[in-house]
Design brief:
With 361 residues, this protein is an all-beta fold. It contains no helices and 30 strands. The chain has a single domain, classed as Methylamine Dehydrogenase, Chain H (7 Propeller).
């Protein structure tokens, strides 16, 4: 990413299709392969919807701690599948195709204690493509994996020095993952060897006054199917790492596959100041198109592109920016092929999810 052109293109903004209301703050969003949306709340409950319909089709109650993340896995085509739910220091597996409309903690298929103590709560969990491994991040800074065939728990040898808020597997790299923390660092691991392969440390973007008000804590992260990584920080940065991008076979800029993913290479990365406040959510809509959302509800669509003639020159384009309608604080963002969901709470403290139709062209 030797050179970047920044542009603004006022494309069609998203259309609000539905609003979902919950009694408690929305803390997590995840969609199933069938297009159902799991909405986790800080009262230890989950409601399942089929957007844009607003009727609850399934619920989980009484988990006893805030739902920090939901990772959906497909078990049969057309069904809701199963969901790994992270709450407090535990994860539980639930069968969403159960005939029961309301599930409780006693209906879980498996429950594992991950946190090292009661203060070491889970933040993000994710399941890899072959559904054999679950990765987790915790408040103590730990990053680890669970073997879903025998439920053995393994932690990486290194950890973040503060809260680890996000973790993701690297597509087409069967033993690699990346995590981000409040220590303003990204760590790239071989989770089978438990070793650190690379890292990237963020520095604040200088303000006009010369003083940065917020450290560049890593608050959100996403990895595209092509290997691009996008990171949102507490000081309003959107950081893009292109060193690990897998390029199409037809492209003249195709490069030889390296021994390891190189997405954290500083020389192939760029940071963009896109907000004055925290960028709490990042999600890829396509391989080089992504949504971002700030804590206060500024939702934006961005695109990266290159040409075969000038493969080292990137164009970064913000296609549109809009504001959430009634959500005053955003906690989660999730993207499905036909809609995108933003979750948080309103000025009265009630949970809200806004469902949007998003045009990416």
């Amino acid at each position: 990413m030797a050179a970047v052109t920044v542009a603004i293109n006022e494309a069609d903004p998203p259309t609000l299709r539905a609003t979902l209301q919950t009694p408690a703050h929305v803390s997590a969003l995840s969609c199933t392969k069938s297009g159902h949306l799991c909405v986790g709340s800080d009262d230890g409950s989950i409601r399942v919807y089929h957007p844009p319909e607003t009727r609850v089709v399934k619920a989980i109650r009484g988990l006893g701690a805030e739902v920090s993340c939901v990772a959906c896995v497909e078990t049969n085509p057309g069904g809701l599948g199963q969901a790994w739910v992270a709450f407090g220091r535990r994860i539980s597996l639930f069968d969403l195709d159960s005939p029961k409309l309301i599930l409780s903690s006693g209906d879980s298929l498996h429950t594992l204690v991950i946190g090292e103590d009661d203060d070491d709560v889970l933040n993000e969990v994710t399941v890899n493509k072959d559904q054999k491994t679950l990765a987790f991040s915790t408040d103590s800074g730990a990053v680890g994996v669970v073997d879903l065939q025998n439920y053995n728990i393994t932690r990486m040898k290194s950890r973040h020095t503060s809260v680890c808020g996000t973790v993701h597997f690297i597509p087409d790299r069967p033993s690699e993952l990346v995590s981000g923390g409040y220590d303003s660092a990204l760590l790239h691991f071989d989770f089978k060897q438990c070793n650190t392969l690379s890292r990237y440390d963020f520095t604040p973007i200088p303000q006009a006054s010369g003083v940065s008000l917020s450290p560049p804590f890593v608050l959100s992260c996403a990895v595209s199917t092509s290997g691009l990584i996008a990171v949102g920080t507490a000081d309003g940065q959107l950081w893009i790492g292109a060193g690990g991008e897998k390029r199409p076979a037809s492209s003249n800029k195709k490069k030889k596959k390296s021994r390891k993913w190189e997405g954290l290479r500083a020389e192939e990365s760029r940071a963009f100041k896109i907000a004055e406040g925290p960028v709490v959510a990042v999600a890829f809509v396509k391989a080089e198109v992504l949504l971002t959302c700030t804590l206060l509800g500024t939702l934006s669509l961005h695109a990266l592109s290159t040409s075969d003639e000038e493969p080292t020159k990137w164009k970064f384009e913000t296609r549109w920016t809009t504001e959430t309608k009634k959500i005053s604080k955003v906690n989660a963002l999730n993207v499905h092929e036909s809609w995108s969901a933003v979750g948080g709470f309103d000025v009265d403290g009630k949970g809200l999810v806004e469902i949007y139709s998003v045009k990416t062209e």
